[in-house]
Automatic annotation (TrEMBL):
<protein>
    <recommendedName>
        <fullName>Protein-export membrane protein SecG</fullName>
    </recommendedName>
</protein>
<dbReference type="InterPro" id="IPR004692">
    <property type="entry name" value="SecG"/>
</dbReference>
<keyword id="KW-0811">Translocation</keyword>
<keyword id="KW-0812">Transmembrane</keyword>
<dbReference type="GO" id="GO:0005886">
    <property type="term" value="C:plasma membrane"/>
</dbReference>
<dbReference type="GO" id="GO:0065002">
    <property type="term" value="P:intracellular protein transmembrane transport"/>
</dbReference>
<keyword id="KW-0472">Membrane</keyword>
<keyword id="KW-1133">Transmembrane helix</keyword>
<dbReference type="GO" id="GO:0015450">
    <property type="term" value="F:protein-transporting ATPase activity"/>
</dbReference>
<dbReference type="GO" id="GO:0043952">
    <property type="term" value="P:protein transport by the Sec complex"/>
</dbReference>
<feature type="compositionally biased region" description="Low complexity">
    <location>
        <begin position="120"/>
        <end position="147"/>
    </location>
</feature>
<comment type="similarity">
    <text>Belongs to the SecG family.</text>
</comment>
<feature type="transmembrane region" description="Helical">
    <location>
        <begin position="54"/>
        <end position="76"/>
    </location>
</feature>
<dbReference type="Pfam" id="PF03840">
    <property type="entry name" value="SecG"/>
</dbReference>
<feature type="region of interest" description="Disordered">
    <location>
        <begin position="82"/>
        <end position="147"/>
    </location>
</feature>
<feature type="compositionally biased region" description="Low complexity">
    <location>
        <begin position="93"/>
        <end position="110"/>
    </location>
</feature>
<keyword id="KW-0813">Transport</keyword>
Amino acid sequence: MNFLLTLVLVLQIATALAMIGLILLQHGKGADMGAAFGSGASGSLFGASGSANFLSRSTAVLAAVFFACTLGLAYFSHSVRPSGSGSVFERVAPGAPAAPASSTAPNPANQIPSGASTVPAPQGPATTPATTAPGAPASGAAQIPTK
């Protein structure tokens, strides 16, 4: 099964590269006007009108092979299940349980690693004005700084 999947993938890549080459070799719609006045029609490999027919049919055949390879790859990728099939969320390792909410908040200064000594946590509730929650922000003219 793995060999067949690799073979279809290589065939699809080869067809894609061949299609790119054939499409780049084809003339655009505006090139027909120049060929009508004799610019380069005799110097082409397939003659005046043979290249459009040959290249377009070859491109159509390669497009059909590319489409068939795409369907084959879709079928093989759907039929081959990985060992741990299922949702991505089911394969995630469970994390640490959430810590219960306590009445005292942790001191952020104790969480910063330092090379010297540790800072002891303050005892008791914090009553300084810097740690209290601010009220509603001022609006309107109260936001304009004065001298």
